[in-house]
Amino acid sequence: MNSKIKTIITSMVLFTMTLTVNAQKAYNLDAKTNFSVFGTSTLHDWEMKSPSRTGTANLTVTDSKITDINSIDITLPAESIKSEKKSMDKVAYETLKTDKFKNIKYVLKSADKVNETTWNLTGTYTIAGVSKVLKTQVKTTVTNGVVNIQGSNKITFTEFGMKSPTAMFGAIKTGEDLTIKFNLNFN
């Protein structure tokens, strides 16, 4: 009888340890996260970056692989996005309507696993006060407990109710297409 009880207790302990290892966990964005927006103009291609953001994710990691993505919620202050030129930043903030809409947001709606390192995410971007659901394929890695998610989305100004900016009385025109790239690190 004692050996049966020991076997049951051992099984329960191992089962509990397995549940703990596979449990969903809340993660926060860390300082190594990068957000960039790329575009074109009649003068040159351009890039704007943001070092300022907050975000959380609820993920399940098993054996250094993401096995479930339950939630991702990211907020990026719109005026944290900067180029190398203040005049360009000013035009960008007017386009983003930062006087009314202080943040750019992303909220995950669903996540579908493609393979061990690739996921298809469906989420809502809110930019300049307009929300739009977009699909994004991302690559994932887990290294020393840090979860990395990388991907990009191609959008247009008009999708989010914005006009392509112009400068120098219309002599310089921004292309309609934008690419949002992100390299998220959660720990």
Mean of pLDDT: 89
Largest beta sheet: strand ordering: 1-4-5-6-7-8-9-12-2-3
Tell me the total number of β-strands.
12
Number of DSSP helical runs: 2
List its salient traits:
187 residues, alpha+beta, ten-stranded antiparallel β-sheet, two-stranded antiparallel ribbon, 2 helices
List the helices and strands and how they pair.
Elements: H1 2-22, E1 24-28, E2 34-39, E3 46-50, E4 54-62, E5 65-77, H2 86-95, E6 103-115, E7 118-127, E8 130-143, E9 146-156, E10 166-167, E11 172-173, E12 177-186
Task: Describe this entry's structure for a reader.
With 187 residues, the chain is of the alpha+beta class. Helix content is 17%, strand content 53%. It contains two helices and twelve strands; from the N terminus they run αβββββαβββββββ. The strands form two sheets. A ten-stranded antiparallel β-sheet has the order 1-4-5-6-7-8-9-12-2-3, with no helix packed on it. A two-stranded antiparallel sheet has the order 10-11. A hairpin with a 2-residue loop joins β6 and β7. Residues 13-21 have low confidence and may be disordered.
Task: Describe, in short, the structure shown.
This protein has 2 helices and 12 strands, in the order H-E-E-E-E-E-H-E-E-E-E-E-E-E. The chain is an alpha+beta fold and 187 residues long. A hairpin with a 2-residue loop joins strand 8 and strand 9.
